[in-house]
Design goal:
Elements lengths: L14 H4 L22 H13 L16 H9 L3 H11 L5 H25 L11 H5 L5 E4 L14 E4 L1 H9 L4 E2 L4 E3 L4 E3 L8
Antiparallel strand pairs: 1-2, 3-4, 4-5
Helix pairs in contact: 3-4, 4-5
Amino acid sequence: MSIGRGIPGTKEPPASNRSSGRCRSVRRRGCSGDPFRGTPPSAKLRKRTIRCSARPPAIPLEPWARILPEEKLEAALIMDDRSAVEELVRDESPGVAEERKQYLYEEAPRRNPDLVDRLQHLYDGHCQVCRWNPVDEYGEPLCEGHHIQWLSRGGDDALDNLMLVCPNHHRAIHRCDAPLDWGDMAYDFGGHREAVAADRHLV
């Protein structure tokens, strides 16, 4: 799918994407920079169009705009802190649908700790990306549950939408907005890709 605005055969991106003029395959500023800096506008459009259309159609693209801050939301769910979740919804996005609010308030806090605990047992506390085992080194299960489709973007708190990752990879995935390519089970960080090293519950 290409995103060239006004070009025949293309689709308009959502308003949240049009405002930034970015395509999902372009790396975020603060991680790898703008690979098209210094390129004429017409060439930029062609490059963005080509790169987006080259992405395999089976890869689900996540919306660019966040509804809620994902890292804070996940932390509140891990701590089973309903008041923190309610505060995030109230302060960050008053337009969240009522049904979604109730899911985040009621169901997600109950399910999240149990699901992450199942992943801890399934992978013996190892990060699914780098296989780091904090239990051996520190005696504590420090790896965290990451929602593949972010909760802040409409994802479910379900086992098939969760991975166990170390704090370093968890932070990098969120800061670089790295999507999981289901085709080869690798996270795309823009400048490089990192394959999932262990998977016993997704594929």
